[in-house]
């Protein structure tokens, strides 16, 4: 190993936050809290164990994902309801906010729109913080469990990974075969999942989710959303996924409409202002 003489000095350089969160357009959280107080429930969808369901949330409405029956992790995909090419961008959300998200963070959409699709307005697991292993909940670092990685590592055909669950649910919603829906499925927000990177080897880890029935994650839809939620076959992800061995539970999605006029000072976010000429 060619360790340079100033190795320690180079390592000691202090990190700089890539994207200071203060530079982002800030959501009016107080307005959302007030609007939520008088919002009424207009719809609900139950995602069964080891399966997924789609749901729709009009712009300016709220949706809540709740643990029911037992600890369960959910894999969430979001699309612009009117244009599926605009979809949740997990990597940029991670870069702009953090590896794990909670109240006040926003879920950003893909290029070229790059705008907030949703803002997190409630999280009953916000007390968890970071544990001694560096684990935390609601991550944007994982991708989604999928049958390809499963086949690569273990062989065989397993059809109830989150990737396949989301694909089937979207295919049913669009009325198209799974192969047509599959390219729309993307990296997820891992709702309720407790994850991190090991300090020594930097490997992605998961551990039993602290979620309990009644816990929820709630968001405000900044644009018209189509969502899909998969109940991960890993259950609470305490042991393994991509198999039928874990105890799995449903997850409930509820949609709430604000009272008329409650959001009169809110305007939906515009698509990104870059002109797309790329210097040519
Ligand atoms: Zn999964």
Could you list some keywords that capture this structure?
binds zinc ion; Urea carboxylase-associated family protein; 6 helices; 280 residues; 29% strand; alpha+beta; six-stranded antiparallel sheet; single chain; seven-stranded antiparallel sheet
Unreliable spans are none
What percent of residues adopt helix (DSSP H or I)?
10-25%
Head-to-tail CA distance between termini = 44 Å
- How many structural domains in the coordinates? 1
Basic shape: globular
The strand count comes to 13
Domain DUF1989: 48-226
Organism: Sulfitobacter aestuarii
Pfam families: DUF1989
InterPro entries: DUF1989
Folded structure, characterized:
The protein has one domain (42-257). The chain has 6 helices and 13 strands. The relative contact order is 0.27. The radius of gyration is 20 Å and the shape is globular. A hairpin with a 7-residue loop joins strand 6 (106-108) and strand 7 (116-123). Strands 2, 4, 5, 8, 9, 10 and 12 form a 7-stranded antiparallel β-sheet that branches. A 6-stranded antiparallel β-sheet has the order 1-13-3-11-7-6. With 280 residues, it is of the alpha+beta class. Bound molecules: zinc ion (ZN).
């Amino acid at each position: 190993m060619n360790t340079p003489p100033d190795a320690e000095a180079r390592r000691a350089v202090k990190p700089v936050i890539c994207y200071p969160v203060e530079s982002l357009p800030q959501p009016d959280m107080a307005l959302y809290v007030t609007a939520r107080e008088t919002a009424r429930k207009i719809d609900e969808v139950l995602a069964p164990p080891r399966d997924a369901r789609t749901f729709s949330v009009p712009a300016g409405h709220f949706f809540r994902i709740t643990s029911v029956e037992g600890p369960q992790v959910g894999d969430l995909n979001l699309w612009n309801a009117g244009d599926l090419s605009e979809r949740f961008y997990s990597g940029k959300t991670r870069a702009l906010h953090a590896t794990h998200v909670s109240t006040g963070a926003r879920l950003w959409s893909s290029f070229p729109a790059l705008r907030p699709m949703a803002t997190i307005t409630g999280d009953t697991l916000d007390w968890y913080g970071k544990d001694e292993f560096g684990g935390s909940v609601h991550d944007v670092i994982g991708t989604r469990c999928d049958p390809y990685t499963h086949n690569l590592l273990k062989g065989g055909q397993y059809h109830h990974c989150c990737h396949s669950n989301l694909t089937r649910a979207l295919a049913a919603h669009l009325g198209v075969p799974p192969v047509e829906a599959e390219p729309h499925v993307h990296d997820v927000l891992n709702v309720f999942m407790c994850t991190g990177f090991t300090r020594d080897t930097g490997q992605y880890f998961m551990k039993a989710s602290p979620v309990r029935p009644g816990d929820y994650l709630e968001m405000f839809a900044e644009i018209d959303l189509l969502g899909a939620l998969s109940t991960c076959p890993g259950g609470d992800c305490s042991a393994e996924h991509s198999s039928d061995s874990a105890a799995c539970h449903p997850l409930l999605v509820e949609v709430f409409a604000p009272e008329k006029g409650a959001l009169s000072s809110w305007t939906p976010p515009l698509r990104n202002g870059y002109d797309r000429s790329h210097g040519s």
